[in-house]
Amino acid sequence: MIKLYGIPVSNNVNKVRYCLNYLGLEYEFTPTNPIEGENHAEDYLAICPTAKIPAMSDDGFNLFESHAINRYLATRENSSIYPADVKQRAEVDAWSDYVNIHVAGAVSRVVFNRLLAPIVGAEVDEKSIEAGLSFLDKQLPVLDKQLSANIYLAGKELTLADIALLATLDPCEGAGIDLSPYQNIIKWREGLKVQAFYQKCYKDFTIFVQEAMQQMMASK
Ligand SMILES: N[C@@H](CCC(=O)N[C@@H](CS)C(=O)NCC(=O)O)C(=O)O
After folding, report:
1. Which residues does 13 contact at the CB level (< 8 Å), separation at least 6?
2. Are residues 90 and 192 in the same domain?
3. Nearest CA, atom 2, ligand 1
């Protein structure tokens, strides 16, 4: 049985949940909450030496990093969301890396400061929000252009690159990141958000944050 470690408020964790759902794989969700320091417990570090969420265990095979986990799962299932053809696969990797390196980091800056800092009692860094937003102003048009010429990021088929971007953009509304100038992204996103793999575990990000805050208050 596959075990997934993390909390649903993390879009990196949800990236793996969307993939598991898309592949139709059963899994056990094992709550591991960094806000409570559970990611530094000895038994978790044995699974995930980086102390990040998500991590996965597949009958004793342990793996961390959401993109590596998704590539493993799709390859294990022989799924076209991570194509076997070497060139198609490389294109999926290129778009996934772009999302992971250039988009996710900028979204995280805004999300952390606008939504999570109050929960963990960190100081809000307005400069970091500004830097994140101005970086997104440069990256989102690239994605919008790609989606004006293609149904999905890497062409005609849905791939891991789409799952990565979908999860990365989940907190945008809650964090006040305006996607309205990017109509191709909006259309692509609407088409994916109605699908079963997404509906099965999606919850409005602001509700996740409110719940996390309530839990924190209750445990104090
Ligand atoms: N590149 C990693 C990022 C993982 C990551 O940063 N996870 C955050 C939650 S979204 C985390 O574990 N934060 C807790 C910490 O750094 O202590 C991935 O894609 O899995």
Report:
1. 4, 6, 7, 53, 54, 66
2. yes
3. 65
